[in-house]
Amino acid sequence: MKCLLIILFSLSLIxxxxxxxxxxxxxxSIAEADKTPDVVYQLSLSKGKLEVFPExxxxxSNLKSLDLSKNKISLLPAEIGKLKSLEELNLSKNKIxxxxxxLKELTELKVLLLSRNDVEEIPKEVGEMxxxxxxxxxxNNVKRIDPNIQNLTNLKVFDLRGMxxxxxMKKNLVEWLPNATIQFSGGCDCGF
Length: 192
Hints:
By secondary structure, the protein is of the alpha/beta class. The protein has one domain: Ribonuclease Inhibitor (Leucine-rich repeat, LRR (right-handed beta-alpha superhelix), Alpha-Beta Horseshoe), CATH 3.80.10.10. The protein is about 15% helix and about 15% strand. It contains three helices and ten strands. The strands form two sheets. The protein has an eight-stranded parallel sheet. Strands 6-8 form a two-stranded parallel ribbon. The longest helix is centred in the first third of the chain and has 15 residues. About 5% of the residues have low confidence.
C-alpha cells in the first residue's frame, strides 16, 4: 500500500510539472505557444508537414529546444540565428541541403540533429558553435567538412554513419576531434 501511494504521488508531481510555463512543458503548436510566448522553452512541431521553416520563432525568446523533425523543410532562413537561447535543435528527416552561416549565432546550442537530410557540406561556421556537444549527420550526402570543425573542443558525439567518406577525411576528423566519439559507417569491400 505504501508503495502504491509513493507511485501515485510521483505521478501527480510529473503531471503537475507539465503545465504551460514549466520548463519541462512541450508546446505542440505555434498557436498554443503564442498565448504565452515568454514561457515557451520547448516547442515540438515534428510531423507537422511543414515545407518551410516557421516564421518569427525569435518571439519565443526563452526557447531552449526546437523539434522540427519529420517535416519537408529544405531551407533554413537567416532568422535561425536569432534563436539565441536555443540549446537543442532537431531538424532530422527533412530535406535540408545547405547550412546557413547564421548557425554560428546559436552560441548556446549543444545538440544539433540533422540526420536523414541532404546536407552536402559542413561549413566553417559550424566550427564556431563552441558549446556543441552532439552533431548528428547520419545519412546525409556530406562531401566536405571544413577544418574549422576542430574548434569544437566540447564535441562528444559526431555521427557520420550512412555516408561514404574518404579514408583521408576520416583520419583528419579523428585528429581534429580527439575528444569526440566519431561514428563512421563500416567500409565496403565491394570489389570495385
